[in-house]
Amino acid sequence: MELTQVRYFLTLCRTLNFTRAAAECHVTQPAFSRAIARLEEEFAAALIYRERNSTMLTAFGREMQPHLQAMADAADAAQALAAARRQPPPGNLRIGLAPGVSAAPIATAIAEVLRVFPSAELHFSESSAPALAESMLADALDCALVPENSALPERLNRWPLYTETAVLVCPGAHRLAGKNACTAADLEGEILLVGDSCGGFGHMLEKNAAQQPRLQYCRGSVSQLCELISAGLGLALLSNRVSIAAPLTTRPFTEPELTRRIELTVLAGRPLNPAAANFVKLCRAQAFS
Amino acid sequence: MPKSPQLPGEAFIITLNLRLAELLASRRENPDWDAAYQQIVSTLNREGFYEGMLGAGEVFPDFLLPSATGHLVNLRDELARGPVVLTFFRGEWCPFCKLTTAALAEAAPRIEAAGARILALTPEAGGWPLKLQQRDASAFEVLADIDFGVGLAAGLVFKIPPLYRARVQGLNLPLRHGNAAWCLPVPAVYIIGQDGIVAWRFADVDFSHRPEPDDILAALARLG
């Protein structure tokens, strides 16, 4: 397929009118119709119903539209982004993080964006997945990292990035700190602090383990949770991707193994500024260990 | 590899295309595979596809793409250091690409000695570009052509015809591509001069035909 054919088709999707679409693309209508027909020939399927008074997308046309849009945008972007390096400002990179999702795994991608676009500013915001989606719809965020299975509007594209595993966070002097790995049974008699920033691991444990520790609900950030653990108020299950500093330590939590997948989400169809667009591409291309 | 005829005193060289032809012949023994293969070649061979592909004498559009190792690579920056051998691959899963990347890796030191750099593009994402790069001991850099953008700009991308799509169903291409368009690029190779203009191109809609590394080296030598 040719980029011009794809552009013609996307213009036709918008106008649903051959005459107007051809005019917008600055070609004659016969040339325009031929280009669409050739695209349909290559796909071996009709994209458009041609009726006397109306032009409508076929089911196949509707299915292909968002994919072809993404590809045409990528073709424009690959070139425009290269040009953008030489014409500041590249825009700011605004990343949303769902509760308990660490920025550590994306740090190298961010560093690379800042190497190429040194004047870009970085904004993080931490909130629930639905609130992050709303911020994206309101253009207050460029992209967000959210757990798989978050209920989000369909207008968001989602790509799986990596899997997180729960680790037990405890004071370095705690009796469990010396164990190679901890299990639900080890938590007997302990208090487990659970909150939004625990990535839902506490709730997974409730569902999956026979023995249950005492749960203490605690709404707060990861750093506040860690302060409470240091003060001896309890232990917590956090993502293995979260950096934990001494005097706290982490132990692998193996029975049951608790995991969740993290996805990158972006609003479909909205062009991103160069800094954000390259961040998304780097994340999509990356092999997260 | 079957025994090849060998003239006395003359070493028989097993070229990349001999290996590719042998692989193709073995695949074509399966009639379903053969029908799917023929459908790709005949669909793309129709008039127009070749004219749509970017060719020699044209400016290759500049791009910025993520590399397998997490860097942003800019064509113009690379060209400032020397000519670029830009090669499109179908993917880490493709056995024809596997033979080609091995041959290219073997030739990489000679290509670099000629002052050129190899950039290999795959439409894959999510760690597959790194797998592709590491398979040949990272002899060249692999870039992720996210959403087929550069391939589309070069006119190389096509929607996979139904028979072949049925054969590759198990590869989960929407996950590999991060895009459910079910497209692939023609595995073309471009040599781009430092002026940004395509000096040489190899493009064949038959994905079992690839340029010999020696042809690439000869074209680089002609660049001067």
What does this structure look like?
The complex is a heterodimer of chains A (289) and B (224). The model of chain A has no long low-confidence stretch (mean pLDDT 89). Chain A has nine helices and twelve strands. Chain A is elongated, with a radius of gyration of 25 Å. Chain A has 289 residues and is an alpha/beta fold. Chain A starts with a helix and ends with a helix. In chain A, strand 1 and strand 2 form a beta hairpin. In chain A, strands 3, 4, 5, 6, 7, 10, 11 and 12 form an eight-stranded mixed β-sheet that branches. With 224 residues, chain B is of the alpha/beta class. In chain B, 42% of the residues lie in helices and 16% in strands. Chain B is built from ten helices and nine strands. In chain B, the strands form three sheets. Chain B has a five-stranded mixed β-sheet with strand order 5-4-3-8-9. In chain B, strands 1-2 form a two-stranded antiparallel sheet. The radius of gyration of chain B is 17 Å and the shape is globular.
Main β-sheet of chain A, in a few words? 8 strands, mixed
Count of DSSP strands of chain A: 12
SS summary, helix count of chain B: 10
How do the SSEs of chain B run, as a string of H and E?
HHHEEHEHEHEHEHHEEEH
Count helical runs of chain A.
Answer: 9
Short description:
The complex is a heterodimer of chains A (289) and B (224). Chain A has helices at residues 3-15, 18-24, 29-43, 59-84, 107-116, 129-137, 201-208, 222-230, 274-285, and strands spanning 48-50, 55-57, 93-97, 122-126, 143-147, 156-171, 182-183, 191-194, 214-217, 236-239, 248-255, 259-267.
Topology (elements, then pairings):
The complex is a heterodimer of chains A (289) and B (224).
Chain A: H1 3-15, H2 18-24, H3 29-43, E1 48-50, E2 55-57, H4 59-84, E3 93-97, H5 107-116, E4 122-126, H6 129-137, E5 143-147, E6 156-171, E7 182-183, E8 191-194, H7 201-208, E9 214-217, H8 222-230, E10 236-239, E11 248-255, E12 259-267, H9 274-285
Parallel strand pairs in A: 3-4, 3-5, 7-11, 8-9
Antiparallel strand pairs in A: 1-2, 5-12, 6-10, 6-11, 6-12
Helix pairs in contact in A: 1-2, 1-3, 1-4, 2-3, 5-9
Chain B: H1 16-28, H2 31-45, H3 49-52, E1 64-66, E2 72-74, H4 75-81, E3 84-88, H5 95-113, E4 117-122, H6 128-135, E5 141-144, H7 149-153, E6 157-159, H8 162-167, H9 173-177, E7 183-185, E8 189-192, E9 198-202, H10 213-223
Parallel strand pairs in B: 3-4, 4-5
Antiparallel strand pairs in B: 1-2, 3-8, 6-7, 8-9
Helix pairs in contact in B: 1-5, 5-10
